[in-house]
Specification:
The protein is an alpha/beta fold. The chain is built from 8 helices and 9 strands. Helix 2 runs parallel beside helix 3 and helix 6 crosses helix 8.
Length: 207
């Protein structure tokens, strides 16, 4: 799953990105609202995390713009504003959740999972190919009910392939879909990760 993180606090976004990457999320980080809008309107995201106080275009106006343009992706708003009026304003702007800074990382991750679970509730969340299964909510992969250990990139590749099992992807497309905007891998890197995924699936009898 891909997350857009829009916040100008570099220390916070670095920490959040690290925690989300450990949960197999691909994270794009930007530091102002206009760039956030550009990314949101260019790439497909499963979740957007916005800070209220952003340069150029604040989080409230960005959230409103996204909703006005028909974007239904879950939005989690971060803010140091902790009074009830501000919370109501954030939710009325279109945010699905409102988290006050400073916050506990574990609680934030729990709220993220809850938002994603809600957004996937109308569709069967588990992706399957024969006895191979991938659960996007728990980020777990199993073969014949036994766990399969994958790296974050291998997991993201498998999730994409299971979502589009009849589609052939070019290396360029995979780079755009799986790697964040801060990474600069080569096509050889993509092939290496695909090879690693195949070897692990073959080792458990899934390929």
């Amino acid at each position: 799953m891909r997350v857009l993180l829009v916040d100008d606090d570099n220390a916070l976004t670095a920490l959040l990105s690290e925690q989300l990457a450990a949960q197999n999320y691909v994270v794009d980080r930007v530091a102002d609202g206009e760039t956030g809008w550009a990314y949101a309107s260019t790439f497909d995201y499963d979740l957007i995390i916005l800070d209220w106080m952003l340069p150029q275009l604040d989080g409230i106006r960005l959230c409103q713009r996204l909703r006005e343009q028909g974007y239904n992706v879950p939005i989690l708003l971060l803010s140091a504003k902790d009074n009830q009026t501000d919370k109501i304003r954030g939710l009325e702007a279109g945010a699905d959740d409102y988290v006050v800074k400073p916050f506990d990382i574990a609680e934030l991750l729990m709220r993220i999972r809850a938002l994603l679970r809600r957004s996937l509730s109308e569709a069967a969340p588990v992706l399957s190919w024969g006895d191979l299964s991938l659960d996007p909510l728990s980020c777990q992969v199993t073969y014949q009910d036994k766990p399969v250990a994958l790296t974050a990139k291998e997991y993201a590749l498998l999730e994409l392939f299971l979502h589009h099992s009849h589609q052939v992807f070019s290396a360029t497309t995979l780079l755009d879909r799986i790697w964040s905007s801060e990474e600069f891998p080569s096509e050889a890197t993509v092939r290496s990760h695909i090879r690693g995924l195949r070897q692990k699936l073959k080792a458990v009898g899934a390929a």
